[in-house]
Amino acid sequence: MYDSNPTLQGIRKKVIDEEKQGEVFFKETNGKGDKHFYIESYGCQMNFSDSEIVASILSGMGFLPTRDLESADLILINTCSVREKAEETVRKRLRIFDQVKRKRPGTLVGVLGCMAERLKHKFIEQEKLVDLVVGPDAYRDLPTLLAGAEDGEKGVNVLLSREETYADISPLRLDDNGITAFISIMRGCDNMCSFCVVPFTRGRERSRDCFSIIAEAKELFERGYREVTLLGQNVDSYKWTNPENDTVVNFAQLLEMVAQVDPGLRVRFSTSHPKDITDEVLYTIARHENICKYIHLPVQSGNSRVLALMNRTYNREWYMNRVEAIYRIIPECAISADIITGFCTETEEEHQDTLSMIEWANYSMSYMFFYSERPGTMAARKLKDDIPMEVKKRRLQEIVQLQNQVSFRHNQADIGKCFKVLIEGDSKKSELEFKGRNTQNKMIVFPKESGYKPGDYVWVKVTDATSATLIGEIEKTHSPDA
Ligand code: SAM
Ligand code: SF4
To answer: Which residue has its alpha carbon closest to ligand 2 atom 4?
Structure first.
């Protein structure tokens, strides 16, 4: 599937969306320029958001985006290191890019993002596949690195920064329906989950100037966008100190400020960390109609011993307490999770604890993975990856099956209810249908009716549901106050 150019069809916003992996970022522009860049992105939303920063820097240099690999002067791949599979995919793609390069000498190939630091020597020296290797904090250096590469030098900058937030760079919105957009509010991560490579590849946590975030949200709203998703590895630890008066802005306060940009602008955020999500955040969500009632709260495992080995710094009871607080303070809230199965030494009973958590927490959906050992992480150094692959796969299968049932039930319970839906565009299957999401982040498809267009809010009555999608029809008589 990665050997052809994926299209922009069927975009859904997820933390890690398998459908989006390898998506080619592209936007029609009226800009003038004779050089073209092609960019393919892998991994989490943060990476997709970074590709928009890179695109903005390149467009400042006169590059235009293209989705045609073979006509590009610069081919970029924004990489992910979170699981081994993602890395393998990138290697395969680099071989394809190399063939293009041979046919069209002068084409430059660059590796961006999380794989840059770890594999810079391999890419440049051993495999000779790439001209540029640029880490996630070094995108401002692209003009210099590119100039060097055009003169035949290999350009490498993988330095991580304690300050870089790209606050002043207005991203070139490539993943563009003109309705929903991502805003990075912080970078890096200071947690040390033992399985995770992110703190090594993306560096220390830093929060972006809140005024630049609000300005970006306002500008998007003025341009017709109706939803922003605030992105960070752990949004609950957002903390920005105003250098002028030393006042500190926390995540709850930031959420409130973004929600106040306009009642017509929906606000989402991802990812919340169970150890850090506060009641103050939950009350802020409850107070504002336009802050969506949906929290992505990765559990990783339902068992306290495994959570301790994962260094998640919470246990099963703590997690359950947070879920209870969410449902108490925001009763209509939907919760989703990330789950890793087959972590080092996980027993069958401990696996059962993860299954029971899925039922108990009543997740609307989950992103589910089997454990993939990553070089350099605490788990790789200290723990044995001792669960056989067939056991990991079987446990994952059980988790996926149960989550599908729980999601189906969750969605079936919505039949007969009316939701306010932000129309995002045509449904994947038919031009006669719209798709949009409700506050709980559930995708709803419904027949088009005249007078409605993408970017409009519309009340939709749910008439049917699968485990992934709600099906409905526009409810013109619905009174939101009824
Ligand atoms: N910062 C977010 C958090 O703490 O929940 C998640 C960031 S990570 C990019 C996304 C998800 O990938 C994690 O929540 C975890 O479930 C999964 N993941 C990370 N490292 C993994 C590994 N070594 N093997 C399998 N899954 C992994
Ligand atoms: Fe990785 Fe944990 Fe940081 Fe998430 S919170 S990015 S899982 S170290």
So the answer is: 233
Residue 215: what residue type? A
- What single letter denotes the amino acid at residue 183? I
pLDDT over 60 (residue 2): no
* DSSP letters spanning 94-120: HHHHHHHHHHSTT-EEEEEETHHHHHH
Name the amino acid, one letter, at 384. K
Please tell me the distance between residue 114's alpha carbon and the centre of ligand 1 in angstroms: 13
pLDDT digits (tens, 9 = 90+) for 335-376: 999 999 999 999 999 999 999 999 999 999 999 999 999 999
Report angle CA 336, 339, 341 to the nearest 5 degrees. 160
- Give the nearest ligand 1 atom to 339 CA: 16
Classify strands 294-296 and 266-270 as parallel, antiparallel or unpaired. Answer: unpaired
Alpha carbon distances (Å) from 104 to 66, 123, 150: 16, 20, 14
Ligand 2 center to residue 234 CA distance, Å?
7
Which atom belonging to ligand 1 lies closest to the Cα atom of 197? 20
CA of residue 367 to ligand 1 center, whole Å: 9
Pocket probe mutation, ligand 1, options 47, 115, 235, 369, max atoms within 8 Å of Cβ: 369
Element (H, E) at 281: helix 279-287
User: Measured in angstroms, how far is the CA atom of residue 375 from the centroid of ligand 1?
Assistant: 14
The two counts, helices (H) then strands (E), for the chain are 13, 22
Beta strands at 186-187 and 206-207: parallel, antiparallel or unpaired: antiparallel
Which residues are 76's β-sheet partners?
39, 110
Strand 155-157 to 132-134 pairing: parallel
Single-letter amino acid, residue 410: H
CA gap 360, 440 in Å, rounded: 18
Secondary structure E strands in 365-410: 365-370
Cα–Cα distance, 84 to 200 (Å, whole number): 15
Question: Tokens standing for 237?
Answer: 């630890």
The bound ligand whose nearest atom lies closest to the alpha carbon of 301 is 1
pLDDT in tens, 377-415: 999 999 999 999 999 999 999 999 999 999 999 999 999
The token duo for 405 is: 């049932």
Distance from residue 118's CA to the centre of ligand 1 (Å): 18
Q: Is 340 in the pocket of ligand 1 (CB under 6 A)?
A: yes
What is the DSSP code string of 206-221?
EE--HHHHHHHHHHHH
Question: Which single residue is written with the structure tokens 């973004």?
Answer: 258
Span from the CA of 193 to the centroid of ligand 2 (angstroms): 6
251 in contact with ligand 1, CB cutoff 6 A: no
